[in-house]
């Protein structure tokens, strides 16, 4: 009962936009502690209204500086800002590395800004989902803006792209195979493109390169703008803020925002269902023992993993049946 | 029947070490085509005996050159080599980018070497599993050596580390936040460390840095060696090959190899079980309709995703029971 009461207070705190309650709620969700489902479910029902913007790009593109500049711009308009930094390149270090990242002091001490860094989660494959859940908690605080900053690599981008209304891809005038490769992946998820550090040599060339790659994107109604910024000097930030808003308006008017939201919900429910089934099998259903038996057979080369899995699935269906009969 | 017969031939071809059959089997598995399970299950039962080595590190570390040099070294000893290149930074481009990668000509045309590149898979989160399945097929060909080359970022590393006997982490004398961050993640999965391009400035410093970070690794019986190579000149390759073999011998003598194999099997069976349950629900069980109904409620703010998931799980258990009763 006490625990339940605590969650009431915590949830109310989040909904009232209290950062301390928000940080505590996020920790419960990240660490998969009791109360996680209740918190997420109730905050979910409170609805969402934030503009969620993902900012991604290769390491060294100046994403943090850009995020800070954008946040300052929103603060100037008296909008509250939540910043979530996700670093999938560091699956083991528990976020410590993000700790030595230097943010603009005015952003860090501004009571209108909430900042949270995430680098890992207990289980493999969980960072994307954890990030989406953290974003939903920050949204529930009622901040007008949520900015999600990620290093532009691999699968996490897809998760963030799914959670965000608008994905801003940040590139800098540089070359190299790795960056080329990343660009290829990033070109398809960006709603807005930014050539940052635009005073460097090669900025014009990069701009042209991006536009020519974007010209190959077919079957999409939205034509991503390509902007130039010098984030460290605040140049181009106003135009970026406008492009993000224009994209959001397009999401509404085109129906694409609705479509994305449907897709997001379906994926989320499916994930939760599979989690529940997995927990039911391995933790509650006693199938870990059955798996151990099969393990011996597999190790001995007498059984393959697919046959072992098939046996477990069949047995679970049998047991469900028995359980229902005796209820 | 015909299809089954074809798979017999295909499977026999793989087991006989025919590259064309191997490539076809891999395509069936990658594309999730019919016959996938049969192929994987039967090849699995054929056992594994390859030494599987993962080579990972940041973009620009010279991994491809190192892989080619190592493969040449194995070829000199008349061992057959399978090379699997996995690029998770390119989730959208379907492997096209890896196509312009230039390999040593002698490796590409050597009939004792099988090379396969992977960059994507239909479903999100599937690249790691697909890579592990591709590795298992290459192993079934009976090559003495399998080398898996990946860009050192994020979750895919964990999948490769799980599939490999020995993980070699390749770094170069350079600096930068991104690389620092990657190093932090990579430090914990490496069994052998290589400072490549060791003739560059800063190589000694990097060596000392790696050793000092490794000194912080606790509770592990294996002390990873730190080697220097100049892969482009073949320098240090012999020592690397020896370190990989020493590590593999340690895996056997310490029992760690056995422990890893158990863990690998348990994860794999669990994945297959969850896949089967998901397919049962969404594709065969008709729960997609139920999900659609919930979707409307969720969109309208009258239901949260957790309640929707709970209803589907309960309904599926009920239906299983009815099915069993009427069987």
Describe what this molecule looks like in 3D.
The structure is a homodimer of 327-residue chains. Chain A is α/β, with parallel strands linked by helices and 327 residues long. The first copy, chain A, contains 14 helices and seven strands. Chain A folds into three domains: 46 residues, no CATH class; 207 residues, Rossmann fold; 42 residues. In chain A, strands 3-2-4-1-5-6-7 form a seven-stranded parallel β-sheet, sandwiched between helices. In chain A, helix 10 links the parallel strand 6 and strand 7. About 3% of the residues of chain A have low confidence. The interface between A and B is large, with 81 and 81 residues.
How are the secondary structure elements laid out?
Two copies of one chain form a homodimer.
Chain A: H1 2-15, H2 19-30, H3 36-45, E1 51-57, H4 63-76, E2 81-86, H5 96-99, H6 105-109, E3 113-118, H7 127-140, E4 145-151, H8 155-163, E5 166-171, H9 177-186, E6 192-195, H10 203-214, E7 226-228, H11 237-254, H12 256-284, H13 287-299, H14 305-326
Parallel strand pairs in A: 1-4, 1-5, 2-3, 2-4, 5-6, 6-7
CATH topology-level name of the largest domain in chain A: Rossmann fold
Q: Residue-averaged pLDDT of chain A, rounded?
A: 82
Distance linking N and C termini of chain A? 27 Å
**Helix and strand pattern of chain A:** HHHEHEHHEHEHEHEHEHHHH
Secondary-structure class of chain A: alpha/beta
The multimeric state of the shown protein is homodimer
Query: Helix fraction of chain A?
Result: 55-70%
Overall geometric form of chain A: globular
Strand content of chain A: 5-15%
- Biggest interface pair, residues each? A-B, 81 and 81 residues
Give the number of DSSP strands of chain A.
Answer: 7
């Amino acid at each position: 009962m006490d625990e339940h009461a605590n969650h009431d207070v915590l949830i109310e705190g989040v909904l009232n936009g209290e950062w301390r309650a928000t940080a505590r709620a996020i920790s419960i969700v990240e660490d998969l502690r009791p109360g996680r489902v209740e918190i997420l479910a109730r905050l979910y029902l409170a609805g969402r209204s934030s503009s969620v913007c993902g900012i991604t790009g290769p390491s060294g593109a100046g994403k943090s500086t850009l995020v800070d500049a954008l946040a300052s711009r929103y603060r100037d308009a008296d909008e509250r800002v939540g910043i979530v930094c996700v670093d999938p390149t560091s699956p083991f270090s528990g976020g410590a590395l993000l700790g030595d990242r230097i943010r603009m002091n005015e952003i860090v001490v501004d009571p209108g800004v909430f900042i949270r860094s995430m680098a890992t989660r207990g289980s493999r494959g969980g960072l994307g989902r954890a990030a989406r859940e953290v974003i939903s908690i920050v949204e529930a605080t009622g901040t007008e803006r949520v900015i999600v900053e990620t290093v532009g690599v691999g699968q996490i981008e897809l998760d963030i792209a799914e959670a965000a209304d608008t994905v801003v891809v940040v590139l800098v005038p540089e070359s190299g195979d790795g960056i080329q490769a990343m660009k290829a992946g990033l070109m398809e998820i960006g709603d807005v493109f930014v050539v940052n550090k635009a005073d460097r040599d090669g900025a014009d060339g990069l701009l042209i390169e991006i536009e020519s790659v974007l010209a190959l994107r077919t079957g999409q109604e939205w034509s991503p703008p390509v902007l130039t910024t010098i984030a460290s000097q605040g140049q181009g930030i106003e135009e970026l803020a406008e492009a993000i808003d224009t994209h959001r308006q397009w999401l509404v008017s085109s129906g694409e925002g609705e479509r994305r939201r449907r897709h997001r919900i379906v994926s989320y429910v499916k994930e939760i269902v599979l989690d529940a089934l997995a927990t039911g099998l391995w933790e509650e259903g006693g199938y870990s023992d059955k798996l151990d038996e099969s393990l011996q057979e597999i190790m001995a080369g007498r059984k393959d993993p697919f046959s072992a899995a098939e046996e477990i699935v069949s047995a679970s269906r049998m047991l469900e049946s028995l359980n229902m009969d005796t209820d």
